[in-house]
Design a protein that fits this description.
- The chain contains eight helices and no strands.
- The protein is an all-alpha fold.
- The termini are far apart.
Length: about 190
């Protein structure tokens, strides 16, 4: 064990502030949208801000969540650029390129196909606004997993970490998975 640790020192630069900022953004996003959605469900906070128009309020939340996601992704990429790469992760094209792009592609297929199946209000917490679908979606990708948005996003994070060859990215991607598991507990 000591030999493993000594040969793998410096795989993550804990002195980089961007690592912590990215970790905070990863934890913040689902925490934010779950708090806001619960406030909407119990008190119609956003609907009241939009003069009783729950559809507009939901679209505003969707835009906010989407924008926060883009910002979180930017912070993640920035954190990766400030981290050391691992020779193990970058030495094999099988890992660094093929597996990375496969994870990114499959992750995006899950995310985009679930957005297509649910629509904007179904994707962005419309049920908390009283905007319900006629029936549950059971077609792809929901016949593969009950949470394709979360697992697809997580796959994209892991793929990006592998593409950059950064162990810190794998740690942050694991945080994404854990945060989504917690969010699923609140949403189900």
């Amino acid at each position: 064990m000591a030999q493993f640790l000594s040969s793998n020192q410096g795989l993550i630069d804990f002195n980089q502030r961007s690592l912590y900022i990215s970790a905070l953004a990863i934890a913040f996003n689902p925490t934010f949208w779950n708090i806001v959605a619960r406030r909407e469900y119990h008190g119609k906070l956003l609907t009241r801000l939009f003069n009783g128009d729950s559809q507009r309020a939901c679209y505003a939340l969707a835009l906010t969540i989407f924008s926060l996601g883009l910002f979180r992704d930017y912070l993640f990429e920035r954190a990766l650029r400030h981290q050391p790469s691992s020779p193990l992760l970058i030495s094999s094209p099988l890992i660094s390129v093929y597996l990375a792009y496969t994870l990114i592609a499959l992750g995006n297929i899950l995310v985009l196909s679930s957005t297509w199946a649910l629509g904007i209000t179904g994707t962005y917490l419309g049920d908390y606004f009283g905007i319900l679908m006629d029936e549950p979606v059971t077609s792809f990708p929901f016949n593969v997993t009950g949470a394709p948005m979360y697992y697809g996003s997580t796959m994209s994070f892991f793929g990006t970490a592998l593409l950059y060859g950064r162990p810190a990215g794998l740690v942050l991607a694991t945080e994404v998975l854990c945060v989504y598991w917690v969010a699923l507990g609140f949403e189900e």
